[in-house]
Amino acid sequence: MYAAWLNSKEMDPRFKDDGNIYYHPELVIGDGAASKVYLGTASSDGREVAVKVFKDDKFSHEHFAKEVKQMKEHSALPGILQYLTSFVQETVDGNTKLDFTQRVIILELIEGSLTEAMNTWTSMTPCLVGRPPHLQVIRYVAGSLIKILSGLNPTSSLNDRRGLVHRDVKPDNIMVDRNGSIRLADFGISKILEKNKQDAYSSSPSPSHPFASPEAKGNPGLSPPVVGKVHRTSDLYSLGRVMQCMMDVNPTGEPMVEMRAMPTEWPKYHALAFEGLVTALLEQDPNVRAYVHRLTSVMNPHRIVASHPFFWSARTGLRFLVTLGNYEHPAPFGNLLVDAVKSAIAEVVNPGQTWFDKVDELEQPAPVLILVSVALPCTKQLVDISGVRKKPEPHATEDHFKTSPIGLLKFIRNKCLHMQHRDMSPQLRKMLEDESLFLFRFPSLVLRCWQALLEVLKPITENKQHAQLCDFFDRPFDLDSMRSGLGGL
């Protein structure tokens, strides 16, 4: 239909005063509560654009004004749908012949939405769902979204500057271009939170879709109606719902008759990190959501979520454990770290065992003694010198460490640092070159240690001796590395 329309002579510009924007009323590419979006072209340069035409009612007028304001202010940020222009035009209804005001926003055209992408996942060959590439897509989309939301809240702590809450994060508003890049669209019900404010009431209609946070929905059915609130973590709740629905392949977010189980083909350490992050994001109480109750004024929750182990590579997770193993003792963190390691060990060892029983084959084997006899020149007598060259086992784990939780971190640190030692056997070195080795043996170790240290994040960020450790709580992740191998976008 689009090609036929372009080839026809029925292309009268709909908006002559603003660059001659053409669109066909039947080429609808989006339909929302306040507007319809049409596929159009701009005669100035011939590019295809999205023509967002708003309805002529009070709600739509407010939606238009707010979206134009926020798009003009934030469109230059990475990951925000590009705003081109907007205008208000008096026109005549073709059916009623009555005058009415038409409000229009012209936006860059993006090929599709996350909803459309998710609808193809189960029909792909091979099927994407439940396999490692499925996990990679979720990590990439969630990582892109948290990076965008962090850009809307560009503060190092909760109270530095005002922030913007989108309030309508859902698969329909998450756009995906032909290169797989993510864009966030539709700022019509967004809300500015002023400096030092964590929440506020909103005069805009409350979102009612399943991706909206509990505080945002309010309760319009009560008398008097309860107006929805906006909290700095409201969009993070929506992010958690989007992640959950990507795992369930449920783009509408509506309750499913049967929820999908956690995919067994995902690496267990990443599956546990997924569960840990989604659980934190879906907290009903916004004051404890996304670890915000542990952060006080130390750091913005958006930046903490962006630093979550779910987004780490196996190499980063291993480097985190090695960094913890560098500490002489756990005193700077009290019992927090000890308890976290204990819990991770208890999940994988049998009663009566220690963590060392899970890794004992990684200990350097003792040197083999070769029986050697030599004849002394003066006596012609054979003398046994077996074991003369025997050396102590290199980097052997001391017995008292084998029963200590912190001994596990020391063991991991020593094995990684001494991997290239000349006494290391080639077989053992080859095993240790697998960066996910310890993550598979103790799947929750990284997550539990990272979450435990959130309790002492303030001294970690303020003390220079923890500079290396601080990096794991305020680290930008590499979206380009996540993008490699994506097949579902």
Automatic annotation (TrEMBL):
CDD domains linked to this entry: PKc
One GO MF term attached to the UniProt entry: ATP binding
One of the protein's GO biological processes: mRNA processing
Domain Protein kinase: 23-311
Ranges of biased composition (kind: Low complexity): 202-214
PANTHER family in alphabetical order: MITOGEN-ACTIVATED KINASE KINASE KINASE
Region (Disordered): 198-227
Lineage: Eukaryota, Sar, Alveolata, Dinophyceae, Suessiales
Cellular component annotations (GO), alphabetically ordered: cytoplasm
Keywords in alphabetical order: ATP-binding, Nucleotide-binding
Coiled-coil zones: none
Protein name: Protein kinase domain-containing protein
One Pfam family hit: Ribonuc_2-5A
